[in-house]
Fold this protein.
Amino acid sequence: MYIYNEQDQRIIEQRVEQFRRQTNRYLAGKLTEDEFLPLRLQNGLYIQRLAPMLRIAVPYGLLYLLNSKKLRKLAHIARTYDKGYCHFTTRQNIQFNWPQLEEVPDILAELAEVQMHAVQTSGNCIRNTTSDEFAGVAQDELEDPRPWCEIIRQWSTFHPEFAFLPRKFKIAVSGTDGDRAAIQIHDIGLQIVKNDTGEIGFKVLVGGGLGRTPVVGSVIREFLSKEDLLTYLDAILRVYNRHGNRANKYKARIKILVRAWTPEVFAQEVESEWEYTKETPGKLTSEEVNRVKGFFTLPSYETQDDAAEEQNLAEFAKNNIAFGKWLQRNTRAHRVPGYTSVTLSLKPTGVAPGDVTDTQLDTIADLADQYSLGEIRVTHSQNLVLADVKKSDLFELWQKAKSGGFATPNIGTLTDIICCPGGDFCSLANAKSIPVAEAIQRKFDDMDYVYDLGDLTLNISGCMNACGHHHVGNIGILGVDKKGEEFYQIQLGGSSDTNTTLGNVLGPSFGRDDMPEMIEKILDVYVENRKGDELFIDTYRRIGLSPFKESVYSKEIQTSKTTDHKGA
């Protein structure tokens, strides 16, 4: 894994001291709120409903090298500067919800000790690049995307030309045909592909994004040679930086520009700009690519008897149904025989999705050291992954994970809910989201029923900014406001996989107490109409919205439980 060199470390330490001086000037009244705003955002600091919120970067979802040490540092920060927990986000980052403003520079200094920081996790810049949480160990990978993410990270960090873009900007990279990085809903999505001659390069998508105007990205180039990656990104960013709408923040995202121009026109503009950038020093050399790839060599895996271990696991599962369900839901095939990747669920009922206590952080660090070569990864669905676990250790790991509270066997199911912090924390939210998630989890506590439903995504956002990615949930829930009261709008048919689709609004919104019942009615329609083992999303695409609408909005329900609010 990539580790900081002397220059990396010096830059981060200098940034910490710079922000300490800026914070002290603000607290002394020498900087106004408007002057301090871009400075704090450049260092991951928001002012939320009840307290500041600090967002920590996790480059491409990996707490790389000594990451058990990093996790213990996060536990220490949670105990010392916060309320004993932190939150993992849908962009694979970490949030502290209760730091004191005057202590934030101290937190950043402690993070720098373990090669962590909060730069470019907010503000109008290129945000930290994301990727597949199983990158480098997945069986279906064409090429490991992590070196390319690292190249983009180094290029984008403190990029002077793109530090003040019209709006925030996000890049995601996928190394597989099956998209696990949601590249189609990013400002730029990069898919590693192979052309007719066998050369590795990138398919380039631009203009995706959620929020107030959800858009699926468009392909502007089917194949980009890998040496041209950075110069082509320069061209895209320059076109956007020059033409993005700075007069209206709701119309400032690149997705709006691409839609207004059409993808074809935007692509032409990028190609024209690229003529000025393609042969600049930003063009990658094979030496530079190999240098970065050298940080991502395979660890020293032990030789395992895969067939024998599979037989042993089958015996354990036969004698322990709970372990068998966990194996089925929380483990994933590994490229190395005898190994598997394990997802630690952060979604037990009664816990806000993605929240982890300081004690749990320490426990997970211990598990990573003992069972996964010290490595922890963050998923887009607000869980954690131990990527390199020997199959012979799985039963023992399961027992320890269960004791720690993160062995709920629900990965990919209805109760594996993606949920933003919502109105409990965020000043932008129209409604609380965490209580809705908990109510749904309690309603559907029969795991046999949940397993029968199969793979199903349920995403909740407290406002149109869509931090909970409700637009791309098979079932999406959006908090809306009506005359100061909280209501919830339901969308169906969203998906963030290879066949990305945006959900369709079901109809008028509901009160919070009605949500579990409405979800039940939706699921009843699915169960009644599915064919064989057909998944929810496939049934929905086959039968459409109408049967769900008819069930949910019966005359009795419509007159007694809904409002006439159509949502935003």
Summary: The two ends are 43 Å apart (CA to CA). Residues 556-568 have pLDDT under 50 and may be disordered. DSSP finds 19 helices and 20 strands in the chain.
